[in-house]
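Posting this for the archive.
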Amino acid sequence: MAKRHNIDTIAEVLIDKLNDMERTAKRIEQASSRELKIDSREVRALLENQKREEKAFLDDLRAVRSKNSTRVPNWVWGVIGGLVLLSFGAIFYAWSKAEDYEMQKIEAEYFEQEYNKLKS
């Protein structure tokens, strides 16, 4: 059989619960009427730190771009190297032809002298 409670006991419990609910309602009203102050110092510090890091990254990127803009491309160095080698080749060829020219000139003078001796 279920245990029966006295009406006075039930009324006291209900009154206590109502009082608790009223106190809770007052606390909720007080909390909702208060102006909340949010501390945004940490967020600001994080944003400033991120801003500094982004600025440093962009400065580094600008430095690399300016370095690359003043740098001579590799194909230009290849062309310059090719021209230097071609110049050395042309100089060597002209030098060897000059030596041959001197030899041909000496031979021509010799044969001209021999021809003139035979002719006279």
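The chain has a mean pLDDT of 87. Residues 41-71 form one domain.
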